[in-house]
Give the backbone structure.
Amino acid sequence: MQDEPTPEELTRAVADFLRNDIAPVLSGHNAFKLRVAINALDLVTRQLRLEDGSDAAELGRLSQLLGQPGSLAELNRVLADRIAKGEADLQTPGLSGHLWQTTMDKLAVDQPNYGSYKRELEAK
Amino acid sequence: MQEALGRCVASWCPGATGVSNAARLSGGASQETWSFDIIHPDGVIGAILRRAPQGHGASPRAVGLDVESILMQRAFDAGVPSPRVLHVLQPQDELGTGFMMARVDGETIPRKILRDAQFAEARPKLARQIGGILAGIHGLDLAQLPKLRGMTAAKEIGDLERDYRSFEWPRPVFELALRWLRERDPGPSREMTLVHGDFRHGNLIIGPDGVRAVLDWELAHAGDPMEDLGWVCVNSWRFGEIDKPVGGFGTREELFAGYEAAGRRVDPDRVKFWEVMGTLRWGVMCCGMMRHFRIGPEHSIERAMIGRRSSETEIDLLRLLASRERG
């Protein structure tokens, strides 16, 4: 077992330092690149917090939907393949709900401020 | 660089006494954009150079800078807002291949155009104006233009599928979109026209009076004119204004009205088809950025983060193809 602080606490602390202390003293292209870098750290922080829960739920849905066990990567390949062959589509029970939930969980990490995501969260 | 620009300008611009303020604006390894001022007794002329340095080839989909300059000039002649082409580079210029054009003042950054007060009056008019501009582009006579690659929906689907499969990363939502597109391929367009191919925010210079110039003809081709109308409606170019499909400015109806007022017909089903295609296309391009980040020498965080935007296109594809029931 690794010691504290957790990776999430560390990435958050680094992002806050860059945001509060470094960003104000930079300008021009370096300021832009720093904003991108801070966004990347914020994304990592969100992923560290959310990934375990969303991965476990996705794996559960996939095994049920496909009727077989496997890793997340394997089962996503099987699902992609079935859709490509026309063996699964939006009429397949549970498929639409699964894709929606999986995509919402990705957006929660990648881009929680994206307009479509915020709209769908409100609509839920 | 300033000296080379000065020598070149002296060869085609009578009275010009030199060049100042040469500055590189942007571009990757294969293409550069420079801004500079031509010093002239009648006043300073703001200019832009687009060039590929010697020995660099363009990407396979790109038309090449020589063709871009011709398309831009023809668009200008036809009244499409465009920079005037000043000079096409010759071997003796020793500046590589490319062209010089007049610099057009205005803004290209979407968030400024969609938020800043100085554009407030222009914004409600832009969807309709864009319709008129696209009609102007599609009205150019293909027979009078350089030979362009011909594209159909079927070819585009094939290209996207090949690119997506090359990433070897399963994306069930992309698979769903590919099936949807194949099942609804409307077939070749009755009319093949010039298609700009990348008509969206970033490639439009906008001022308080509206669109001042259409830039970047790199992806121009011959194809279904409805492709440009669909691409400009892709949610990724609305920058948060998601209820205004046309670049965050206005409605499809306004876009269509502007297009039809210029004497051309809209096929709304084809536009929707190309909007789905465009959404998938941007998603695949985001994945391409991720690959570029991983294998390219630059190791750019920006590219890496664009890779993480492919999920934005997945939610937009679901909204288009699998809209949830609202109670």
Q: What stands out?
A: Chain B touches chain A at residues 170-173, 175-176, 178-179, 235, 238, 240-242, 301-302, 304-305, 308-309, 311-312, 314-316, 318-319, 321-322, 324, 326 (CB under 8 Å).
